[in-house]
Amino acid sequence: MKTPPKHSNSTPKKMHTRQFHESTTFEDDMELFDMLCVALYFAGARQEFLQQVLEEYGAELDGFDDDEPYGQEQIIEVIKRIRVKRPDFFTP
Fold it and tell me: pTM, whole model, 2 decimals?
């Protein structure tokens, strides 16, 4: 059984996708992808638009400065921006 990582008070910096894939396993990648899909679903993303919401999420990430913190608060802000930008992808 894996031990969960210890929580740190510092916010991790965003990793590039390539760096992320080099430092994790495929199973880890899939688990994180599934968790993001679940988070988007509970944020109101409609199932039939989930792929498009994920694409919007990726596009939003491209706008982040790699030297800036990227953690829970930033993820929430990205989801909020997508909800405003593409309300048709979400339940009212």
Answer: 0.67
